[in-house]
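Entry 14. Ran structure prediction on the chain below.
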Amino acid sequence: MNTDATSLAAPPVAATVAPPSLPALIPELPAPGRRTGAGAFAGSSDALALAELARRAAAAKRMIAIVSADPLSAQRLAEEIPWFAPELRVALMPDWETLPYDHFSPHQDLVSERLATMYRAARGECDVLVVAATTALYRLAPPSYLAAFTFFLTQGETLDVDALRAQLALAGYSHVTQVVSPGEFSIRGGLIDLFPMGSTLPFRIDLFDNEIETIKTFDVDTQRTLYPVPNVRLLPAREFPLDDAGRTRFRGRFREVFEGDPSKSALYKDISNGIVPGGIEYYLPLFFDATATIADYLPPTATVALHGDVRGAIDRFWQDTESRYRLLRGDKARPLLPPTELFLPADAFNGAIKSFGRVELGGNAAGPTNALPPVQVDRRADDPLTALKRFIATT
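Output, structure tokens:
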């Protein structure tokens, strides 16, 4: 078989009409409260289109919040958009990866990443926020909670160790002998090991009397220091407060919401004693006077991009959640909050994003790009590359 360069070249086409450029296929940024659509983009062209849209938004000092129909698409977009636009700061809001009303808590790394993402979004430290539709339905801690329990340590400043210990305990950190996971700290004389939420590595703080002499990262497996850093940002250890005020608020709200004797509930007794039971995240509203939504973490000028069949994903989530609630609500020792207390109904979600400019990509609408036709090699044909040559010649 002849496979030289001549045989692979496409035959000349006399009159080929150039397709419209990508920027021409992407809608303009809508004004706050307005909505526009762009149809469906095939393959990874959706990530390319969203990257171009985010570039325009960044030039106008606006954030793009992408609400994807499913978690896999959200993960893919969070990885592909930086490939097309490396200058953009992209943050993914991960899901708890637990089913509603599960009796176990999400992994600490997920909680750490969620808190870091919420903090970055609230402070405008990301250009693109990617979140799955089902994750966007969860009611969240108010932004004021993160602001109150976030603090910084800087090299050269004076540090009161006892005050730091009290502050870390207030933020929900655990005092351990050896730090191995986010939300833990250890104090050994003038050496403080600390693994902040939202950080990929723990930090070792070396004190000279009461002054922070050095701050270095270290490896949790070998416990060896890696490289110095000038400062450390500390986020709360959980998405809800476990200080005295938080536990008091939980007990009061628990008695208001649920009937019967609360002292018979192991959940109530555990929180009263400062113990964190598994699945406590599905009682998060009891720790606050009012909860927030993902929209409360977005700046007013943000643009919300709805990617895929978001409405269908929300409807399926609510069908599954209400089914689990009906199945599990009979346990009087562990009463459940109604789904509307934990998650946003479809109309509430639409109302929360109504004030933002909205762009809809995908769903059932036809889009500006099409999937590739079959171009695979046919080894039985006289010319195995016929399909590829035809596509090149006509495109």
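Residues 310-328 form the longest helix (19 residues). Will compare against last week's run tomorrow.
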